[in-house]
C-alpha cells in the first residue's frame, strides 16, 4: 500500500532539496512541508488560493516570466523551484516596500505587534529602509465593523483573507472589499454591521493589525501571553482552542486547528465569552449558612459539616432522601465521581442533570445511546442535511460552518423550524412550523411517508407501523396545521431521504422538551433506520447537545435510570424534575448547575434540609444553599470532556486555580473521604483510568492518549478491536 | 423608489441564470435607471431580488465606476482620456468643458443638469477625441463643437444662459 501511494506522489526540487507531495499541492505548501519559509499574506490553508498579495514569489525553472506566485502554482513532476534567487528576493523586497508605503508605524500601540506577519516578514525578507519620503495616507481609525471587531484601514494590506473568510467559509458575505484600485478598502454596506457570530476569526487570520477585537484591544502584548492547549467550554462542539493567559487572567481564546472538530475556526462565543473565569465576584471561600446568612468557613469546616448533615439525613429519612444534580460543563471525571458519590457512598440513584427528553438511556430501535451517530466530518460528506428544531448557528455555531462546507460540495439543506435561522437564506427548503404545530408532528408526517414508501424494507420493524398508527389522529391534525403544501413538501423530503446518497438528521437536545416533541428523538431515529441513513459515511441522526460536556454527563451516568456506560437500572431514581419537586428529597447536592432557574418562582423546595452547591459564582441556586463550595473553571484544571460527536478531549490547566477554590473532583474526593470512602485520586488521569476500566465507551483510554486532539471513542469501535 | 416592475425585472433576470448571483450587474443597472444612482434602497432591492447580502451588492456596486454612488446630472458627459483621445488633446477638451460648465471633472452642476466625467477608452479611437452624453457618441470634438453641443443640450433642457 505505501508503495502504491508513493507512485502517486509528485517529485520536485525546492532549493536543491528533493520534495514529494501529492498531486495538486501548491508550490507554497510543498515548500512549507520541506521546511522552507515562503512569506505570504493572502493565502490561508482553509481557503482557495487567490494570489493577491504578491509576496510568495519563487522562480521556477523553464517557466517563462519569473517570478511566479507559489500559492497559485500547483506542483508538477520534475519541477525545479528556487525561493532565494536574486530575482525572487528583489521581488519580495519590492512588494514589502510597497506595502510599507502607507502602513503606519504605530507598532508600539498595535495589538498585533509581536505576532504580525508584516513585521516578521519585513525583518526576514524586507528592505531595511524606504525610498518613500512623502506623507502616508491617513484614515479615521479605528472604525467599528461590528460591536466586536474594529477596522484600521491604514494598517490593512488588502490581502482579502477576512473578506474571503466571509464569502467562502462563513458564507455570510458580510465583510467585503469596497471600491477598487488605490481606493480599495475592507468594509460593509453603509450603516451595516458585520454581525456574524464568526466575525472573530477575521481578527485572528488578519496578518496585520487591521482587524482587532474590541475585547482584546490594548489588553496585552502577545509575547507576555502564556499559551495552553485547551478546549472551548461554551457549547457541545468542543472546538480546540489555545487559551492565552496573562498574570492569572484569560485574555483571549485562539483557534487550535482540529480538522475533525472545528476545522480551525472558533465562534465569537467561544473566543470571547470567558468573562466568568476572570469575574471578580468568583467565590474564594466556602460558605456555610449560619443564622440565615451565608458566612465564610474553612474547607475542613464546610466538608465536615456537609458529611455530618448527610449522615444525619440518611439516618433519619433513608438514602432516598438524598439527591444530586450534576453539571453539563464539568469534566467527565467530575461527573463520574459525582454519581459515584451519590450511588456508592450515599446509596441513592437520585442523580440527574439538565438535558433534553429521551425515552430511556438507549434508543430501543437500535440499542444505541442517544447521541449523534455520525461524526462532525461526516456532515461535510452528506448529500442531504435536515435541521429539524435545531439552529446550530446560534447554539453549536461551528457546526454551521461544517454544514456550509457540505453546502459548497452540493448538499441539500432542509430546515424545519418555527423560527427564522441564519441558514434559511442558503437552504434548499425551509419549512416554518406554524403556530400550534410542532417539529415533532413534522417528524411524524415524514415517518408516516417513509412507511408508505415501497422501497423501504420494514422487515423486523413492523412495530413502528403499529406505533405510528396510534398517532394517526395527531398526524392528521398536524397535516391540517401545516397545510397541504407544506405537508406535501414534508412527504417529498421523506421520500428523498429514502434514496439519498447520505442524509444526516439533526435536532436540538432541548427542543425535545417542547410540547409536541416528546417523540421527536425516537421518530427521527426511526426515519434514519428505515431509510438506511445510519451507520455509514455521510449519514446519521442525533441530538445536538447543549453544553461542553452534556454528552459526557450522560456517558458518566449522571442519569437516574442508568449507570456509567448506559447500563440500565432496574429501579431508576428520581429524575431532574422529580428531584426538584419531590418533597421526599431532604438533601440536595448540586455541582455546577443552576436548577433554581427551572422551578416556577426560582425558589427550591422549602422541605430541603441541606442544599450544597459547588459553583464558580453565587448563582441563584447557591444563594439558597446551606453550604456553598467554590469551584474552579475549565481553564484552571485538568480533565476530559466529551463533545457532540463523542470526541473525548483533554483540557489542561491554563491558569493557577483561584486561591481558595478547588476543582470539583477535589471537592468530591474530599467529601467522599469524610464520608468514609477510600478515594485516593491524585489527578483526573487516575479517575479516567477507572472510567476506562468500566465504561465500554471509554475502554482503553488513558490521559496520555488523549493528546492534543482527543480521541473519538465509540462502543462499536471498541467491540471491533476485540 | 424602486418600482415593483423593476424588482420583478431583477427577479426575472435572476431566474435566467444558472446561478442567481450572475444577475447582480444588470440588476444594479436597473436600480440605477430607476433612481439615477445606487441608493441604499437600490442595494436592498438588488440584494433581495437575487438573494445576496447588501454588503455583497455594495462591494460590486463600488467596484465598477459606471454605478454612481451619488446623484448625477440629467446629462452625463464622459470624455475619453485614453491614448488616442489623449494624443488628440482631450485634456484641452475636458478643460474647456470644465470652464463652460463651471465644474471640475467628476462633479455635477449645482442645478443638477450636467455631470462631467472622464472615461477610459470608449472605443472611438478613429474619431478621437470623443465623448459620450448619456451613452450617445460625439466624435471629432473640438472646443467649438463642444460649445455647440452644450448649447443644444441647454436648449433641450430648457436652460437660459446669459453670455
TrEMBL record, chain A:
<comment type="similarity">
    <text>Belongs to the complex I 75 kDa subunit family.</text>
</comment>
<keyword id="KW-0520">NAD</keyword>
<dbReference type="InterPro" id="IPR010228">
    <property type="entry name" value="NADH_UbQ_OxRdtase_Gsu"/>
</dbReference>
<dbReference type="InterPro" id="IPR000283">
    <property type="entry name" value="NADH_UbQ_OxRdtase_75kDa_su_CS"/>
</dbReference>
<dbReference type="Pfam" id="PF00384">
    <property type="entry name" value="Molybdopterin"/>
</dbReference>
<keyword id="KW-0004">4Fe-4S</keyword>
<dbReference type="GO" id="GO:0046872">
    <property type="term" value="F:metal ion binding"/>
</dbReference>
<dbReference type="Pfam" id="PF13510">
    <property type="entry name" value="Fer2_4"/>
</dbReference>
<dbReference type="Pfam" id="PF04879">
    <property type="entry name" value="Molybdop_Fe4S4"/>
</dbReference>
<dbReference type="GO" id="GO:0051539">
    <property type="term" value="F:4 iron, 4 sulfur cluster binding"/>
</dbReference>
<dbReference type="InterPro" id="IPR006656">
    <property type="entry name" value="Mopterin_OxRdtase"/>
</dbReference>
<dbReference type="Pfam" id="PF22117">
    <property type="entry name" value="Fer4_Nqo3"/>
</dbReference>
<dbReference type="GO" id="GO:0008137">
    <property type="term" value="F:NADH dehydrogenase (ubiquinone) activity"/>
</dbReference>
<keyword id="KW-0001">2Fe-2S</keyword>
<dbReference type="Pfam" id="PF10588">
    <property type="entry name" value="NADH-G_4Fe-4S_3"/>
</dbReference>
<dbReference type="GO" id="GO:0016020">
    <property type="term" value="C:membrane"/>
</dbReference>
<dbReference type="GO" id="GO:0048038">
    <property type="term" value="F:quinone binding"/>
</dbReference>
<dbReference type="InterPro" id="IPR054351">
    <property type="entry name" value="NADH_UbQ_OxRdtase_ferredoxin"/>
</dbReference>
<keyword id="KW-0479">Metal-binding</keyword>
<dbReference type="InterPro" id="IPR036010">
    <property type="entry name" value="2Fe-2S_ferredoxin-like_sf"/>
</dbReference>
<dbReference type="GO" id="GO:0042773">
    <property type="term" value="P:ATP synthesis coupled electron transport"/>
</dbReference>
<keyword id="KW-0408">Iron</keyword>
Automatic annotation (TrEMBL), chain B:
<feature type="binding site">
    <location>
        <position position="80"/>
    </location>
    <ligand>
        <name>[2Fe-2S] cluster</name>
    </ligand>
</feature>
<keyword id="KW-0479">Metal-binding</keyword>
<keyword id="KW-0001">2Fe-2S</keyword>
<feature type="binding site">
    <location>
        <position position="85"/>
    </location>
    <ligand>
        <name>[2Fe-2S] cluster</name>
    </ligand>
</feature>
<dbReference type="InterPro" id="IPR036249">
    <property type="entry name" value="Thioredoxin-like_sf"/>
</dbReference>
<keyword id="KW-0411">Iron-sulfur</keyword>
<dbReference type="InterPro" id="IPR042128">
    <property type="entry name" value="NuoE_dom"/>
</dbReference>
<dbReference type="Pfam" id="PF01257">
    <property type="entry name" value="2Fe-2S_thioredx"/>
</dbReference>
<feature type="binding site">
    <location>
        <position position="125"/>
    </location>
    <ligand>
        <name>[2Fe-2S] cluster</name>
    </ligand>
</feature>
<feature type="binding site">
    <location>
        <position position="121"/>
    </location>
    <ligand>
        <name>[2Fe-2S] cluster</name>
    </ligand>
</feature>
<comment type="similarity">
    <text>Belongs to the complex I 24 kDa subunit family.</text>
</comment>
<protein>
    <submittedName>
        <fullName>NADH-quinone oxidoreductase subunit E</fullName>
    </submittedName>
</protein>
<dbReference type="GO" id="GO:0051537">
    <property type="term" value="F:2 iron, 2 sulfur cluster binding"/>
</dbReference>
<dbReference type="GO" id="GO:0046872">
    <property type="term" value="F:metal ion binding"/>
</dbReference>
<dbReference type="GO" id="GO:0003954">
    <property type="term" value="F:NADH dehydrogenase activity"/>
</dbReference>
<dbReference type="InterPro" id="IPR041921">
    <property type="entry name" value="NuoE_N"/>
</dbReference>
<keyword id="KW-0408">Iron</keyword>
<dbReference type="InterPro" id="IPR002023">
    <property type="entry name" value="NuoE-like"/>
</dbReference>
Amino acid at each position: 500500500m505505501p508503495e502504491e501511494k508513493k507512485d502517486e506522489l509528485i517529485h520536485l526540487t525546492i532549493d536543491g532539496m528533493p520534495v514529494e507531495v501529492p498531486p495538486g499541492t501548491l508550490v507554497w505548501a510543498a515548500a512549507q512541508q520541506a521546511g522552507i519559509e515562503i512569506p505570504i499574506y493572502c493565502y490561508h490553508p482553509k481557503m482557495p488560493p487567490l494570489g493577491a498579495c504578491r509576496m510568495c514569489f519563487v522562480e521556477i525553472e523553464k517557466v517563462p516570466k519569473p517570478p511566479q506566485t507559489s500559492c497559485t502554482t500547483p506542483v508538477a513532476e520534475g519541477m525545479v523551484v528556487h525561493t532565494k534567487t536574486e530575482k525572487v528576493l528583489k521581488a519580495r523586497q519590492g512588494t514589502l516596500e510597497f506595502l510599507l508605503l502607507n502602513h503606519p508605524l504605530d507598532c508600539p500601540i498595535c495589538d498585533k505587534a509581536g505576532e504580525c506577519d508584516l513585521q516578521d516578514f519585513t525583518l526576514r525578507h524586507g528592505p531595511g529602509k524606504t525610498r518613500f519620503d512623502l506623507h502616508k495616507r491617513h484614515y479615521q481609525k479605528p472604525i467599528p465593523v461590528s460591536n466586536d471587531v474594529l477596522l484600521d484601514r491604514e494598517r490593512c494590506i488588502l490581502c482579502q483573507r477576512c473578506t474571503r473568510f466571509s464569502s467562502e467559509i462563513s458564507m455570510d458575505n458580510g465583510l467585503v472589499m469596497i471600491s477598487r484600485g488605490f481606493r480599495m478598502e475592507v468594509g460593509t454596506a453603509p450603516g451595516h454591521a458585520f454581525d456574524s457570530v464568526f466575525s472573530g476569526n477575521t481578527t485572528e487570520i488578519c496578518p496585520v493589525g487591521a482587524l482587532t477585537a474590541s475585547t482584546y484591544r490594548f489588553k496585552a502584548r502577545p509575547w507576555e501571553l502564556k499559551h495552553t492547549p485547551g478546549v472551548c467550554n461554551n457549547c457541545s462542539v468542543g472546538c480546540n482552542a489555545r487559551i492565552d493567559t496573562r498574570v492569572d487572567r484569560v485574555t483571549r481564546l485562539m483557534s487550535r486547528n482540529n480538522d475533525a472538530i472545528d476545522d480551525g475556526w472558533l465562534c465569537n462565543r467561544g473566543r470571547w465569552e470567558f468573562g466568568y473565569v476572570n469575574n471578580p465576584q468568583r467565590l474564594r471561600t466556602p460558605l456555610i449558612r449560619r443564622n440565615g446568612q451565608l458566612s465564610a468557613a474553612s474547607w475542613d469546616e464546610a466538608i465536615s459539616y456537609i458529611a455530618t448533615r448527610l449522615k444525619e439525613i440518611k439516618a433519619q429519612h433513608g438514602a432516598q432522601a438524598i439527591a444530586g444534580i450534576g453539571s453539563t460543563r464539568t469534566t467527565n471525571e467530575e461527573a463520574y465521581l459525582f454519581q459515584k458519590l451519590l450511588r456508592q457512598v450515599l446509596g441513592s440513584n437520585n442523580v440527574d442533570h439538565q438535558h433534553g427528553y429521551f425515552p430511556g438511556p438507549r434508543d430501543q430501535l437500535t440499542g444505541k445511546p442517544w447521541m449523534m451517530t455520525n461524526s462532525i466530518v461526516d456532515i461535510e460528506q452528506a448529500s442531504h442535511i435536515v435541521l429539524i428544531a435545531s439552529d446550530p448557528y446560534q447554539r453549536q455555531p461551528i457546526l454551521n460552518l461544517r454544514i456550509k462546507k457540505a453546502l459548497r460540495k452540493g448538499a441539500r439543506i432542509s430546515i424545519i423550524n418555527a423560527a427564522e435561522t441564519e441558514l434559511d437564506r442558503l437552504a434548499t427548503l425551509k419549512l416554518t412550523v406554524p403556530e400550534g404545530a410542532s417539529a415533532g408532528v413534522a417528524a411524524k408526517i415524514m415517518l408516516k411517508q417513509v412507511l408508505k414508501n415501497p422501497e423501504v424494507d420494514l422487515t423486523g420493524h413492523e412495530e413502528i407501523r403499529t406505533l405510528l398508527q396510534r398517532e394517526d389522529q395527531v398526524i392528521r391534525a398536524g397535516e391540517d396545521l401545516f397545510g397541504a403544501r407544506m405537508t406535501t413538501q414534508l412527504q417529498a423530503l421523506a421520500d428523498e431521504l429514502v434514496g439519498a446518497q447520505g442524509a444526516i438528521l439533526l435536532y436540538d437536545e432541548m427542543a425535545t422538551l417542547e410540547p409536541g416533541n416528546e417523540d421527536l428523538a425516537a421518530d427521527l431515529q426511526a426515519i434514519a433506520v428505515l431509510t438506511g441513513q445510519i451507520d455509514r459515511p455521510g449519514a446519521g441522526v442525533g441530538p445536538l447537545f447543549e453544553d461542553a460536556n452534556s454528552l459526557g454527563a450522560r456517558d458518566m451516568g449522571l442519569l437516574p435510570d442508568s449507570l456509567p456506560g448506559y447500563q440500565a437500572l432496574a429501579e431508576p431514581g428520581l429524575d431532574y424534575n422529580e428531584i426538584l419537586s419531590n418533597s421526599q428529597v431532604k438533601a440536595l447536592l448540586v455541582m455546577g448547575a443552576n436548577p433554581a432557574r427551572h422551578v416556577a418562582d426560582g425558589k427550591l423546595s422549602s422541605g430541603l434540609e441541606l442544599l450544597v452547591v459547588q459553583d464558580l459564582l453565587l448563582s441563584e441556586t447557591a444563594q439558597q444553599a446551606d453550604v456553598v463550595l467554590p469551584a474552579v473553571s475549565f481553564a484552571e484544571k485538568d480533565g476530559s470532556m466529551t463533545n457532540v460527536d463523542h470526541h473525548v478531549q483533554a483540557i489542561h490547566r491554563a491558569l493557577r486555580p483561584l486561591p481558595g477554590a478547588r476543582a470539583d473532583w477535589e471537592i468530591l474526593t474530599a467529601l467522599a473521604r469524610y464520608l468514609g470512602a477510600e478515594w485516593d485520586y491524585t489527578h483526573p488521569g487516575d479517575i479516567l483510568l477507572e472510567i476506562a476500566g468500566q465504561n465500554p465507551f471509554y475502554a482503553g483510554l488513558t490521559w496520555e492518549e488523549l493528546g492534543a486532539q482527543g480521541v473519538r471513542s465509540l462502543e462499536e469501535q471498541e467491540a471491533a478491536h476485540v | 423608489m424602486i418600482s415593483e416592475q423593476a424588482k420583478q425585472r431583477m427577479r426575472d433576470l435572476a431566474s435566467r441564470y444558472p446561478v442567481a448571483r450572475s444577475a447582480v450587474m444588470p440588476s444594479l443597472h436597473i436600480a440605477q435607471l430607476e433612481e439615477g444612482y445606487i441608493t441604499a434602497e437600490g442595494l436592498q432591492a438588488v440584494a433581495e431580488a437575487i438573494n445576496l447580502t447588501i454588503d455583497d451588492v455594495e462591494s460590486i456596486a463600488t467596484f465598477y465606476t459606471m454605478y454612481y454612488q451619488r446623484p448625477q446630472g440629467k446629462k452625463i458627459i464622459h470624455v475619453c482620456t485614453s491614448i488616442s483621445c489623449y494624443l488628440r488633446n482631450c485634456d484641452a477638451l475636458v478643460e474647456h468643458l470644465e470652464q463652460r460648465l463651471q465644474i471640475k471633472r467628476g462633479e455635477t452642476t449645482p442645478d443638477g443638469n450636467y455631470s462631467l466625467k472622464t472615461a477610459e477608452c470608449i472605443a472611438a479611437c478613429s474619431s478621437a477625441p470623443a465623448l459620450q452624453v448619456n451613452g450617445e457618441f460625439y466624435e471629432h470634438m473640438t472646443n467649438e463643437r463642444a460649445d455647440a453641443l452644450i448649447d443644444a443640450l441647454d436648449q433641450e433642457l430648457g436652460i437660459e444662459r446669459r453670455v
